[in-house]
């Protein structure tokens, strides 16, 4: 008697609610989290500058975490989490890299006392947090967090807008170690009210190393500065300055008596008289300056934090922000308004941009040399890892200067071996990774497209060509498919013919063809084109099993870890990347769509619980009762489908890692499987609902994981966006029917494109835009001379395509 194979633990029919499915594409309403629903506890929106540390804005308006002191640590708050078996089937002890912060989310925690208090004429003081008001709500539209405080017992209601300047294409002004807090006070009573807003700050300089020295606050006019005089070790990681400014302050105090404070606390306040029904705004600026970021495992760390090369101390940061406050605030709020001035669903806009806040966390650093250096997630896995960061689509579209610097300084700089063409996947001293090498070549194409001219490409091209030749040499038998040891992001060298990695190879070859053509090297372009066609034919002829693309083992290594006959989330990643950079098809459409349908059928679980009952290895990035797209499944229940399952990396296959999910979702959308792609994206969004955990911290091997910035790729796909800065061409082909309005970014400017009632209108909000051609839903308009748009200008053209 033979055993009957177990049924596949993921249902082919998802049985999703029709109402829920309709909500995927409905515009909906902005998300507002409320105290009364218990939704504020876990919220932590990053409100510091890019690569300036990590400061959270809580759901109740409190600033918390304060990871600005260059403290070496793994995870937002390092700890060990014990989880009952009833919550997670499998191992019950989790560190940050194991998903501890996912299973047991972090709640507000702070190493210092800081806050704001409203004092009205009757002497009653109300802290501006969830304890001081009957109703507190939070609306997060990154980069701006809006908190509203109301209470029928108080004649003054308060609204807080908090943000660090975040202006796409303006990297320096988006990299300030500062937070702007704008409190709008409204008198809701029938009589005039005198109200005082107080901001206080504890001197936490030297908090962790506690070097000898005197903590001293100085307060004068609008500014409070906290410092440590004559520290015994001025190079300690937590030595620097803190500053708080209150514009129009009516009182400044260097030291106040605050219960529980162990260090001197200073305060600033402003008193207002509010007429009935009137409102007035009080602006605070918080800044920090801790230059000694010396612990990172990279030689450039000895140069400290880049912001210290621009500012002498926190007071200088405040001075810059104050001097430029009108412009910085205007441009930040303009981006927020431009992003949300769209016909796309609010929930989708939230999720697509939320992970970009990773740039304002301690996942990423900008060092004194100007070099960007990053972990994969906070404190976990060093070296701006190519096989992780190439998934991240947000930085290249929002801050292309950042990605150009990474390509030039790191991937094709310190991480490049000119003798072989190898791109080391962690820069200094590491080995190559095939997926990362392909992704960085494709990144060069994206960064070139997001440049105003060809200077960047011209500088890099000889090394990019060498990197392509390295990949070609990895196909030793010249059959179109990569072979030998193929190191990849699942932390093992796979062997055999692997659809995932060879699809990325095909896309890299097509990128090489495009770049070589632009560089005037037709012979090399032709070589890349021929190799790409050969690879496509081999992928479709050898590795498509009729439902999806697979891996064939290398003879003699049949037991090595791999995905083989399973359905793998990244099986057609190369075609996904191709859509992101306008390369068109690198794989047959019918086979690709069939594979994506199979991925949704076999890997998307509306509830991962039954799957976890069968497959207990892996980390908890989705819990029973939650939906997710599993990394790899074995729908045929084939013995040995993953090779050696005793290898620790086998656990990866059973996980839901949001960066991979976003990649697959964006590809589904690009291929017209819009419902499937949005379903996967919405599943991630709901896993990160504020009642469950922090909406801004997508977890994979530690917190604020870089790969999650793949979410922006779903936005690119849904818009059908393609752009080439040097050529001056812009194209949008939205995947949703009907009128649409979406934001866009380009090499030098950003704005909105709207198609309505047969007319398409391009409006520029910031910077400049030069176009030689605009294509909307297949209708192309050329401009000779080029169309030049500046802020506040627009251009309208009839759209002769059916909507």
UniProtKB/TrEMBL annotation:
GO terms for molecular function: beta-glucosidase activity. InterPro entries: 6-hairpin_glycosidase_sf, 6hp_glycosidase-like_sf, GH116_catalytic, GH116_N, Non-lysos_glucosylceramidase. Pfam families: DUF608, Glyco_hydr_116N. Residues 44-247, 261-327 form the Glycosyl-hydrolase family 116 N-terminal domain. Residues 435-712 form the Glycosyl-hydrolase family 116 catalytic region domain. One of its GO terms (biological process) is carbohydrate metabolic process. Gene3D superfamilies: 1.50.10.10. This is Uncharacterized protein (DUF608 family). It comes from Armatimonas rosea.
